[in-house]
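Hello again, I could really use a second opinion on something today. For a while now I've been wondering how a particular protein folds. Please have a think about how the structure follows from the sequence. Here's the protein in full, and shout if anything looks odd to you:

***
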Amino acid sequence: MTGTEAPFATLFGFPFGEEREIVQGTIVAFGVPVQSASPRRPGTERGPSAIRATSCDILQSYLASPSRTAVDLSNGRTKQLRDFGGSLDLGDLECDGQVSTTDIAQIAQVTAAIVAAGGLPVVLGGDYRVFEGFVRGVDTSSNATAIISFSDKIALPPAIDAPPLPLATLATVSGGGCPVLCVGTNGLQSGAAWEALESIGGHVVSADELYEAPQQALETIKLFIKQNESFVCCVDLEVVDSGHAAGTPAVNVGGLTPEQLIDLLSETDISKSLAGVAVTNVAPKLDARGLTELAAAEALLALLDSQLFRAVTS
């Protein structure tokens, strides 16, 4: 991997390391500091560093305890932060400017190397288009897995040298096919993206459904998870309403609240089936309150719960 120097802060305080240090069964993070292609708003190149810094902040209550134990106020459960063992942060890929097909190929290469070494890849974006490289890398090194995307869109945005890509296209990158679930879809979508999703039998749980029939929507997501053994998951922060998370390349009116997103990720218990995670579309300069990177870090915490924590019984 061609990367930068050690980041100022690593994801959750993981040791900074190199690919040759990857240990079977551990979390391996890397950042992709690319901007969104015009005319989308800039700023996502600073997303990885902002997510890392915030991820360390939200673990302070655990790290301040001699036993690394704290009560999760969202559910009343007592949890202990695990020893990170061989988990690593590889730093950032060397990227320059707006996302390109060269960046996507580089992401696929690094992701494939992590999976081949037995690690669980975690990508910190960077524009939502980085998810293409991530899925290609996972599929190169393993059997086809299901795809869950928490996003207001069912298509990936354009790269500087490539048009928008229907999310359904990623279901067939390995030559086979895999199920796709889009959660939080909101607003206008392209006809081509809808047709592609319908052609593979993809599923959609819209933002409206999550507001109007939340329990039914949750059961749909849980059923999808039950029917599939492993997943690659992307949390695109544009799934959150811009009134709650302003630091994204595009505006989403009527999106989820951060609390809805975190509750969904926690209640669906996807963490034990993860083949990899990408968190994208964090542009901290556009959010003076820092709520976008906070939602991103908390989403990762929920997704990686079983890897990062152990339950403490009284």
